[in-house]
Amino acid sequence: MTDTTQQAAPQKAQIGVTGLATMGRNLARNIARHGYVTAVHNRTDARTKALVEEFGHEGTFVPGYSAQEFVDSLEAPRTVIIMVKAGGPTDAVIEELAPLLSEGDILVDAGNAHFADTRRREAALREKGIHFAGVGVSGGEEGALLGPSIMPGGSEHAYAKLGPIFADIAVSVDGTPCSTHVGPDGAGHFVKMVHNGIEYADMQLIAEAYDLLRHGLGRTPAQLAEVFDSWNSGDLESFLIEITAQVLAKEDPTQDGVALVDVILDQAEQKGTGRWTVQTALDLGTPVSGIAEAVFARALSGHAEQRSAAAGALPGPAEEAPFVEAAHADAFVDDVRAALYASKVVAYAQGFDMVKAGSVEYGWGVDPGAMATIWRGGCIIRAKFLDRIREAYEKQPDLPSLLLDPYFARAVADGQEAWRRVVQHSVAHGIPAPGFASALAYYDGLRRPRSSAALIQGLRDLFGAHTYKRVDREGSFHVAWAGDGAEHPWS
Ligand code: 6PG
C-alpha cells in the first residue's frame, strides 16, 4: 500500500543563530520564546543537541548539524545571526556561510566586532548581494535571554526583516523597544563601541567615588554599599550603581567577615572595546578624556611590577584615614555624589559627541536621541539619566554638547563647587581620581573664553614656522623670530 499521505515538508526557520556559547544560546532561546521558528547551529554538534534537548520546550528550534543543513533550513530571505568571538572566528564563519547564501540573504554579526571590520565585511558581501548587518547587543548573557538593548546597523533591506524580530526580543521601556535602526554598514557596532566606552568611564567614576568614600570616611564596603544603594533612588539611579551596592555588600564566600572586594586582585582587565573608542576618538579629533582616563587607569592597575616598585619608593601625603571628620561625613558623601553626577554628565556628553562625530565622518545619519532611547533599558549603562538625555536631544537634536542642555547645565553648575572640593580632597590626600579630575578639566576647558592654546600656537610658530591665526584679523601669520621679528601674513 503506498503511503498516500504527503510527507510534510520540514518547517522552514524564520531566522537562525550560529555560535551557541552562552550569549548565542540565550539569544536563540529569546528568539524562539517569542514564537519564531529558530534554526540553530554550532561548530560542535554537542552544543546544538544540548540546546534542543534542554530548551526545546521553549519554542521551535530547527537544529542544523552542518553549515549546509543549517542554511537549507531557513526561509528566504535567509537570515543568520553569527554569535562567535570577534575578529578571526567571525571571519571564519562568514567564509564558511557566505558561499551557501543567495542574493538578498541577510548575515548578522551580533558580536562585539570593531566597526571598521564590519564596514569591510559589509562592503565585501554587498558585492555578492548579501546584506551584512553589524548589530550591537548589550546586556550580557542575562540580557541576551531576557531582553537586551539592540543596536542594529546595516541596510534597510536587512532591517526590514530584523527590525520586528529585534523589537520583539529587546527589552521595552515605557512600551518602547530598546532597539532601533542605528544606520548603515558599521553604525551599529560603532554605537555599541561607544556604549562600551561610556561603560568604562561610568565604572571608573564609580570606583573613584568608592575609593574617596572608603578613605575619606574610613567606612567598610558593606557600609558604603548602603550609600550606593541610597544613591540608586535618585539622579544616579542605574544598573551600574545598583550592582555596585551588591558587589560592595558581598562577603568573601570562602571566609567569614571579609568583604569580597578586599580579596579581589586590584588589576582591571579589558576585552578592548573601551580602547577602540579612545583610538577612534583620537582619529576623529573628539575629546573623550573620561573614557581615556578609564582605559589608562585599567592599564595602570595591571602594571603590577611598576606599582610594587613605586609603592615603597614614591612618597605621598601622610595617609590619614579617615581624612573627613565625622561631623562632616554626610556633607562629604553628598559632595562625592554631586561630583560623580557631574563627571558622569561629562562622560556621557563626550560619548554622544563621539556618536555624532562618527555619524558625520561616515555619513550614517545617527539620531542621538534614538540612541539614548534604546539605552534606557537592557544595556549595561541603562539608567534613568538616559531619559533626560533623550529629552535633551528631542528638544534640540543639534545640541552642541549635552552639557549645554538647560537641565544638565543647571545640574552640573549646582554641583560644581562640591565637584571642586572632591577633586581638591583627592589631590590633598593622594587618592587618584583621574576620572573626576579630567572631567572637571574638560568642563573648565569647554567653558573658558580664552585657552592656553594661544601660547602653544606661538611656540609652534617659533620652532616650526607652523603659523598661527589672530583674534582680530583673518588669515594665518608667521613671525620672523630669528630675523627682524616682524609678523608676516602667511598663505
Ligand atoms: C555589554 C558589555 C559587554 C562587554 C563586557 C566586557 O554591553 O553587554 O559591555 O559587551 O564586552 O562587559 O567588557 P570589558 O572586558 O571590555 O570590560
Question: Alpha-carbon distance between the termini?
Answer: 96 Å
Radius of gyration: 26 Å
Output the number of helix runs: 19
What molecules are bound to this protein?
6-phosphogluconic acid
Q: Could you describe the largest sheet, including whether it forms a barrel?
A: 7 strands, mixed
> What's the mean pLDDT score?
96
Shape: globular
Strand order of the largest sheet: 3-2-1-4-5-6-7
Uncertain ranges? none
Question: Could you characterize the architecture of this molecule?
Answer:
It is a single chain. The protein has 19 helices and twelve strands. It is of the alpha/beta class and 491 residues long. The strands form three sheets. A seven-stranded mixed sheet has the order 3-2-1-4-5-6-7, sandwiched between helices. The chain has a three-stranded antiparallel sheet with strand order 10-11-12. A two-stranded antiparallel sheet has the order 8-9. It is globular. The termini are far apart. 6-phosphogluconic acid binds next to helix 8 and helix 11.
Give a quick summary of the entry.
This protein has helices at residues 22-33, 45-55, 67-72, 88-97, 115-126, 140-146, 156-169, 187-217, 221-231, 239-249, 273-284, 289-301, 304-313, 329-362, 368-374, 385-395, 406-428, 434-447, 453-464, and strands at residues 15-18, 38-41, 61-63, 79-82, 106-109, 131-138, 149-152, 172-173, 176-177, 468-469, 476-479, 487-490. With 491 residues, the chain is an alpha/beta fold.
